[in-house]
TrEMBL record:
Signal peptide: none annotated. It comes from Lysinibacillus odysseyi 34hs-1 = NBRC 100172. This is Sporulation stage II protein D amidase enhancer LytB N-terminal domain-containing protein. Pfam families: SpoIID (PF08486). Residues 47-129 form the Sporulation stage II protein D amidase enhancer LytB N-terminal domain. One of its GO terms (cellular component) is outer membrane-bounded periplasmic space. InterPro entries: Bact_Sporulation_Assoc, SpoIID/LytB, SpoIID/LytB_N, Spore_II_D_firmicutes. One of its GO terms (biological process) is sporulation resulting in formation of a cellular spore.
Length: 288
């Protein structure tokens, strides 16, 4: 009988070993993919937040929470990419204002779950060009077509080119002649304003405007008069009336355009790759 004990023990051990390996790799205990622990530090307070938590506040600050989920997800991807590029993977601080990205700490309880879902469903997704995170510029609304980086800054960037955008966003403001002159530090007459000469760029935004013997770049004129867009027109009667199309600098993704595309059935991936052509949607690497 003894001669059978040793073979029996060996057989039992051989049976148990696979069970031990199976137990260690059960679904509940299997090792997950390495998490990227990027922290974003605020320049104003030196406070640091995990990237994904930071993005929830950026969505609340940068896009209406009532927008379609796919538009919010597109914004999350753009904002994540922008933050990674701007902070060099969290090694430099970022501002909480429009100088970089608006961050809102207090969340509307009605939309909190939706904002968190938009971030969660795009976790670690960023846009790259030639393997590097892009400068994911975005703006509120286009004038019908987005602005090119070349028109905006003089530098051509392959993924910041012009594409048509479906939203229709217009605005108008009327000011007195005195207010107009105060903003421009001038002494212009209604007649001079009426005869203003403008040149426009390839996306129909004002490149230069000349009134009397003074000239401004369209973007400078927009800032001085606090206009929504550099695509503007001027009429006069007893006041100066200025009509604008679009809202913001116009470069990169249009937020209202993203909303229109999402309402039409486009996914977040389709939206970002439309507004940032020639880019790839990839998972954030855990190191530079």
């Amino acid at each position: 009988m003894k001669k059978y004990i040793l073979p029996l023990i060996i057989v039992v051990l051989l049976f148990m070993i696979p069970l031990q390996f199976k137990k260690k790799t059960s679904p509940k205990e299997e090792v997950t993919e390495e998490e990227c622990e990027v922290s974003i530090t605020f320049a104003e307070s030196n406070e640091a937040l995990p990237l994904e938590q930071y993005l929830v506040g950026v969505l609340a600050g940068e896009m209406p929470a009532s927008f379609e989920l796919e538009a919010l997800k597109a914004q999350a991807i753009a904002a994540r990419t922008y933050a990674i590029h701007q902070t060099n993977y969290g090694t430099s601080p970022i501002m909480q204002t429009t100088a970089h990205q608006v961050y809102k700490e207090e969340l509307n309880s009605k939309y909190e779950k939706k904002l968190k879902r938009a971030v969660k469903e795009t976790k670690n997704q960023i846009l790259t060009y030639n393997g590097e995170p892009i400068t994911a510029m975005f703006h509120a609304a286009s004038n019908g077509q987005t602005e090119t980086s070349e028109n905006f800054s003089g530098t051509q960037i392959a993924y910041l080119t012009t594409v048509s955008s479906p939203e229709d966003y217009t605005d108008s403001k009327s000011i007195t002649l005195a207010q107009f002159n105060q903003a421009l530090q001038g002494n212009f007459t209604f007649g001079q304003i009426k005869q203003a000469k403008m040149t426009r760029n390839s996306t129909n935004r004002v490149e230069t405007i000349t009134i009397g013997n003074r000239s401004w770049q369209g973007r400078e004129f927009r800032e001085l008069l606090q206009l929504k867009s550099a695509d503007f027109s001027i009429t006069v009667d007893q006041q100066v009336h200025i009509e604008t199309k679009g809202y913001g600098h116009g470069v990169g993704m249009s937020q209202y355009g993203a909303e229109a595309l999402a309402a039409g059935g486009k996914t977040a991936e389709e939206i970002v790759q439309y507004y940032y052509p020639n880019t790839k949607l990839e998972q954030l690497a855990c190191s530079k």
